[in-house]
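Consider the tokenized backbone below.
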């Protein structure tokens, strides 16, 4: 479970915290602004256009790019360090993630700080992995890259001195987390790497005009790819002979779709044709409406993926959907359950209807201060607890619409 994260000096996110974090390891000026509430199965970010919601998703994707390809690639992909560093910000750009391995009583915080030398290049200044043991918090691994190149495990009563290691790195461009071996007593290291390698980010896009063609993935790329074609190819590879029946089960829940014809004669170029209500001849995916394709991809990722992503993000999933497809999306999100799926869901929206189906504890409202920086407030902190009694059944069906409609 990702229990919280913070972002500093990235675009409009001068210092934003959502969920739980270790206050002593938060690289922001006001640690109290990181609200101490664990993220749940579903987290919804809402607010007016330009308030920074999509920047949060891009920040997560940025860290993932740093992990897979290095800090130069992650910055250049977004126009360079200067283009993404908060105007008027102070200090390094930093990101942190508070994470708990399933079945573990000990939670961990992973933090990175990215420095920049003008007219030269960005570099990874530091990394930190810290564990909480009861009420105490202490560092386990500290990875320093700015002046020193020694990364070491700090003493800890759970491991002997013989197990402590010192490793010298001269690469200031790639995260040490990707290079560290998993420690048998700290399985969360592996889980953190899985999070950065496999979360399903929303730069995933629909490429209907290109057909379904498996593009060669780069080392450390997300195995799901960033195109619908890559994702379907991944699903076909994972499911093998069961792929067609699963895809047809997905189609059964999409308005006006009757069935899908899957041709895997060329397994590197699986072809999909769709049988539509009222149309006798199967039509190719490039002839479907974008709303149908979007809903099809949402159902695949939320319900039918054989190896679910640890974190799934959507950016305004309601865009382009008519009222019928939107209703199906609403029901899909309403019944999403981490215990059945194994993933967490984080999405942005400007739809009050989608906020209405989410518990106030999991809705975060974005706005801007006078300087233009993002402010984040949790909806549950802005309404009286007696209005919902911490139980969804006591919520009015339009709780968000009736109180916060003017905030989006």
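A designed sequence for it:
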């Amino acid at each position: 479970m990702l229990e919280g994260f913070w972002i500093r000096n990235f675009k409009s996110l001068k210092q934003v915290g959502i969920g739980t974090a270790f206050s002593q390891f938060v690289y922001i000026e006001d640690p109290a602004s990181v609200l101490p509430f664990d993220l749940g199965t579903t987290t919804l970010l809402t607010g007016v256009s330009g308030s920074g919601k999509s920047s949060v998703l891009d920040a997560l994707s940025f860290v993932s790019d740093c992990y897979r390809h290095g800090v130069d690639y992650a910055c250049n992909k977004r126009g360079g360090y200067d283009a993404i560093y908060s105007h008027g910000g102070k200090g390094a750009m930093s990101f942190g993630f508070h994470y708990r391995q399933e079945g573990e009583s000990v939670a961990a915080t992973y933090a990175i700080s990215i420095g920049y030398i003008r007219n030269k290049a960005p570099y990874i200044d530091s990394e930190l992995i810290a564990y909480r043991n009861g009420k105490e918090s202490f560092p386990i691994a500290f990875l320093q890259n700015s002046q020193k190149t020694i990364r070491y495990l700090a003493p800890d009563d759970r491991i002997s001195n013989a197990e402590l290691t010192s490793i010298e790195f001269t690469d200031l461009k790639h995260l040490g987390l990707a290079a560290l071996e998993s420690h048998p007593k700290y399985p969360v290291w592996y889980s953190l790497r899985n999070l950065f390698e496999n979360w399903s980010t929303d730069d995933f896009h629909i490429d209907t005009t290109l057909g379904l063609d498996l593009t060669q993935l780069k080392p450390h790329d997300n195995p799901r790819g960033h195109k619908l074609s890559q994702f379907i190819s991944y699903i076909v590879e994972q499911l093998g002979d069961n792929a067609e029946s699963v895809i047809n089960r997905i189609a059964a829940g999409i308005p006006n779709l009757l069935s899908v014809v899957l041709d895997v004669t060329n397994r590197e170029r699986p072809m999909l044709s769709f049988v539509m209500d009222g149309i006798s001849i199967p039509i190719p995916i490039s002839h479907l409406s974008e709303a149908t394709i979007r809903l099809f991809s949402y159902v695949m990722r939320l319900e039918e993926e054989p190896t679910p992503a640890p974190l799934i993000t959507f950016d305004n999933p309601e865009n382009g959907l008519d009222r019928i497809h939107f209703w199906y999306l609403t029901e899909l999100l309403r019944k999403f359950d981490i215990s059945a799926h194994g993933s967490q869901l984080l999405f942005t929206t400007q739809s009050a209807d989608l906020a209405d189906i989410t518990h106030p504890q999991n809705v975060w409202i974005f706005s801007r201060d006078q300087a233009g920086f993002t402010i984040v407030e949790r909806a549950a902190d802005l309404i009286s607890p007696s209005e919902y009694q911490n139980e969804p059944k006591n919520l009015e069906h339009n709780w968000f619409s009736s109180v916060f409609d003017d905030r989006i």
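Residues 146-150 have pLDDT under 50 and may be disordered.
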